[in-house]
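User: I'm new to structure prediction. If I give you an amino acid sequence, what do you actually give back? Let's try with this one:
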Amino acid sequence: MKKIISAILVLILVAASSVICFAESAENESEDRMLPKANVKAVTFLGDSIATGYGLEGYDESTDNAEILSYANLTASYYGLTLGENCFNYAKNGDKSSDLLLKLTNELTEDERANIAKSDVIVISIGGNDLLGLFYTHMAEFLELGESASVEQGIIKLFTMTEDEIKGLSKKAEDFYKTKKDEVEVVFKQTGENISYIFDELKNISPNAQIFIQSVYNPASELPQYEALSIVNAYIFESMIEALNNQIYDVAEEKGMHLVDVFAEFSGRREDCTNIADFDVHPNEYGHSIIADALCFRIDVVYDSLGEGDVDKFTEGEFPWIWFAVAAAVIVAAVPIVFFVVKKSASTQN
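Assistant: Good question. You get back a string of structure tokens that encode the predicted 3D arrangement of the chain. For your 350 residues, that looks like this:
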């Protein structure tokens, strides 16, 4: 009898130890795992050519571009969404913040409004064309090319400057921006107000949506082989981007939008992330993958804080009573085996 009791006690200890180890293992795995994937049911992308995927291999403005490696498509793939069903991309090449605001207030089709309404995540890429339009105007003036000068003329001018012209270019660019700083801030203040109204319109359409906005990156800061362009970038373009992003940061904080800081993500590797070597400011495939990673991580963080991640509740230890049930089941199932073994051992000895 003592042998049986001892065997049962040993079995209980083994079962309990096994369950505890299993629970601890699950808890440790939970601590080491990445953020749970957000349970995104539908997503809408809005904005400009960065969101459309312009400049990527296979991009065709006449199609839905479902096959290109844009950050919108990469994000949809990560969350298991399908373009046209629960992923919608209404971005448009060349749009400024005023264009997006106009679209939301007056130009949405019934289907577009309905799809935005059912989206629990909305992603905005806007402001880049507000920046470029102003920058090109200022460059024409700075380079003394006339108001009707093209971008190509400005590039040619920068690349054909003499050494003497380049020597005085830094001071000239610094002084020029000082004269334009107030104008730049006024223009970008309007951009900020447009983004604020865009947020309000989206909340009217989809009140419970989590809205994410991207900062504007600088594609041109790492081109030391083009000295004149680098000077203009450092003293004018970079300052304009900072003024614009300050507006985006402020509006995001004020309205409760979630910032995806693409500017910071591209810093230190901008030439690798864009097609700037071919004089195209748009992100390349690597750049889009960087944006997608940053966006998905930000979405997962937000959903995790809301408790809406795709979490396995069992392994997360939210049901500790299950461990006791498992232990009890193991013990109950094993007791007859113990009795059989003990009885068999006793009959053998006799």
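You can read the tokens as a compact description of the fold. Here is one thing that stands out. The longest strand covers residues 43-47.
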